[in-house]
Amino acid sequence: MVFGEAKYPIINPDPTVDDCVKSLRFSDYFNIVGITSGSWAYGYIVGKPARFPTANCAATLGFTFVSLMCLQNTRNRMLGIKENEKEVKKFGMWKKE
Q: Residue by residue, what is the 3-state secondary structure of the chain?
């Protein structure tokens, strides 16, 4: 459900998770690695009595967060809410039937 008009060309008006994963950019992969490893480091620093279990739990939470964030960003690009020039070149624009 889109609230408002799309500012950019629509690629897919109803993208699936598979469509979103196929349209991940390098910056999305960079975010996944960076936020997950940063979460692990934070968990290691603050988890004094049990550093590794705390770090692993924090990394799991960070990975879950960044996965949902990246899916949200790619979905917004597919719906034309965010800048999507690369995706238009790769997948083409949506044609109304």
A: CCCCCCCCCCCCCCCCHHHHHHCCCHHHHHHHHHHHHHHHHHHHHHCCCCHHHHHHHHHHHHHHHHHHHHHHHHHHHHCCCCCCHHHHHHHCCCCCC
**What pLDDT does residue 2 have?**
57
pLDDT value at 76 more than 60: yes
81 three-class SS: coil
CA distance 45 to 12: 43
The rounded distance, in Å, linking the Cα atoms of 71 and 55 is: 24
Amino acid at 4: G
Collapsing DSSP states into helix, strand and coil, what is residue 3? coil
